[in-house]
Amino acid sequence: MRVLIVYAGRTGTTEKAAHMLADCFDDASLRNLMETDANPDRAYDAVIIGSSVRNGQIEPKIRKWLVKHEAYLAGMRKGVFLCHAFMTDSHQIIEDNFPDAFIKDCEAIDSFGGELNYDRLKLSERMTLRRLVRRHPETRNMVPCLVTDSIMEFAEKMNY
Ligand SMILES: Cc1cc2nc3c(=O)[nH]c(=O)nc-3n(C[C@H](O)[C@H](O)[C@H](O)COP(=O)(O)O)c2cc1C
């Protein structure tokens, strides 16, 4: 199966997840929208879109790409994955960022977890993240990370 993985993130987590996911397929092409555009075509059997989340929102570049390629995506097997730190918010983030019909049309849609990469953030971003961490007591005893099982399960769903 030829898969196109289009992704965008800021501190490396989504990039790492996209590469881990790509390893689950025989033939996957990766496009990082933070560096380049991605022109999809019918040569692909499926498209996977991956985004990091900030303040409950997916990356603007992913949002624009989804709008630009709406017609193409409507006829494709597709999946969406998110990378974000606070897994208790996953359901809400998906609901807030994607139309119902789009979600129902996806073979797989999931959150892969996230990381707190403070060293790659500006001071103001660190402050915001610290505030968010304080609001999520579950992160007191557990450092957020990527969930490998979720990535593999997602790939299995896409491969059926
Ligand atoms: C300014 C800022 C805002 C964030 N907002 C959220 C959020 O609303 N929900 C969440 O679960 N994680 C949030 N995070 C955590 C990131 O989603 C997490 O660090 C993720 O691994 C980043 O992925 P990336 O490295 O691909 O950008 C935020 C991080 C920063 C720096």
Shape: globular
Q: Any ligands, ions or cofactors bound here, and which?
A: flavin mononucleotide
Strand content: 15-25%
Number of beta-strand segments: 6
The biggest sheet amounts to: 6 strands, mixed
* SSE succession: EHEEEHHEHHEHH
Quick synopsis:
This protein is α/β, with parallel strands linked by helices. Helix content is 39%, strand content 22%.
Structure in words:
- By secondary structure, the chain is an alpha/beta fold.
- β3 and β4 form a beta hairpin.
- The protein is built from seven helices and six strands.
- Strands 1, 2, 3, 4, 5 and 6 form a six-stranded mixed beta sheet that branches.
- The chain has a single domain (2-152), classed as Rossmann fold (3-Layer(aba) Sandwich), CATH 3.40.50.360.
- The longest helix is centred in the last third of the chain and has 13 residues, at 123-135.
- The model has no long low-confidence stretch (mean pLDDT 95).
- Bound molecules: flavin mononucleotide.
- Flavin mononucleotide (FMN) binds at residues 9-14, 52-56, 83-86, 89, 114-117, 121, 125, 128-129, 132.
How do the strands and helices of this protein lay out in sequence?
Blueprint: E1 2-8, H1 13-22, E2 27-32, E3 46-54, E4 57-58, H2 60-68, H3 70-74, E5 77-83, H4 90-97, H5 100-104, E6 108-111, H6 123-135, H7 148-159
The structure holds flavin mononucleotide (FMN).
